[in-house]
Amino acid sequence: MQRFGTWIILGIATLSTTALATEWPKWLGPEGNGISTDKIAEQWPADGPKKLWSQTVGLGYSSVVAVDGKVYFFGMQGANDVLTAMDAGTGKVLWAESSKVGHKPSQNQAANPQNGLPLPDATPTIDADRIYTYGGGGDLIARNLADGKAVWQLNVLDETGAKNLAWSEASSPLVTAKLVYVQGGDGGAAAVAVDKATGKIAWKSEKGLGGYAAPILISAGGISQVIFFGGKTLYSFDPQTGKTIWKQPWDTQYDVNASTPIFSDGHLFITSGYGHGCAMFTISATAAKLDWKGKEISSKFQPCILDNGKLYGNSGGILKCMTWPTKDVVWSSRDVELNEGGSFVIDGNLMIALGEKGKLSLVKLDDPAGPKVVSDMDAFTTSPIWSAPVIYHGKLYIHGKDQLVCLDIGGK
Predict the structure, then answer these.
(1) What's the average pLDDT block by block, 10 residues per block, for the chain (412 residues)?
(2) Do the beta carbons of residue 55 and residue 403 sit within 8 Å?
(3) What string of DSSP letters covers 296-358?
(4) What is the pTM of this model?
(5) Which one of 214, 334, 356, 388 is CB 3.0 to 4.6 Å from 1, fit for a cystine?
(6) 159: part of which helix (H) or strand (E)?
(7) Can you tell me whether residue 249 is helix, strand or coil?
């Protein structure tokens, strides 16, 4: 996640990475749905899960990715973006590689208060032997997973003649067999695809205001479509050419469209904050038909999760559950302390929620009447906490101001 996060739901299995269920190679895990299959404890000790280690990894709102017993975090240290690789069990730093930061955002709130540079929001993506990062200033970099050395890099804003977004670039890279997709900036292409072998621009979309959500790849109407939730528009592009297939206007206050769209069974769901709300579309080969629109879930930037026909979302600090793909609200609860910017991960009938003010909660979801908090703790005292929690090999990884913390939550 990532401050603007956005949760990648892949409609078809086109990613070249063949990740095991317990690996977490990209934003929201192996299936891009925010669901873990690890065995975790159903109750925590009174003082919370055992803290195994913590490591200084820098400022920002990216989330952890993890593969082969190693975790990776993308943060700002000083005036540089730094990608740090650590042993997942001990926190030992294996390597750390830095890069200069590109264009500043137009909103000071989106930047490091010490230097005005855009903080990293986009979560890295691991694909085979490489890891891809997209910095807040538009710097897209491919690195060797083994040592972090750069294979290629380019600045998307420079390549498209665009200005940085008000809250900086934040879309987590979508990586397929040949291409890397990210959102654009202000005044240039709304989206771009980059050849992942060479680092050269493969295509630029039509001009438009980029957004903060991660792109997703779907199959609908017998064709593949790559979906971008832009700053003012929901787009579908041909994944190979960038040609616009269809688009729908979606104008949100401050142009903050940041929560990753969700696609399942021919339906596409989007949501935005600032009271805008949500909508469901039926997708064909040529169009998006509006099924319904409302304010049932209004997520500012944190992701929703679809699990077993139930859609869970943080709507302005209220945890809600809806029945997919209808407008029916199953329950609505303030019992889980999420605040406006909190996010969560789901594992079986359990949810682990991390609130914006640092409250960490273990929540049961198997009661039709609503969620039940079975354990909680104050994980951090500084706020805001906007990085999404990650479960990996029975451990929980959470990021505070500049610290990555590893907690033991494994089931017995």
Answers:
(1) 37 37 90 96 96 98 98 97 98 98 85 92 98 98 98 98 97 98 98 98 98 98 98 98 98 96 98 96 98 97 96 98 98 97 97 98 97 98 96 97 97 74
(2) yes
(3) S---SSSPPEEETTEEEEEETTEEEEEETTSS-EEEEES-S--TTT-EEEEETTEEEEE-TTS
(4) 0.94
(5) 388
(6) helix 156-160
(7) strand
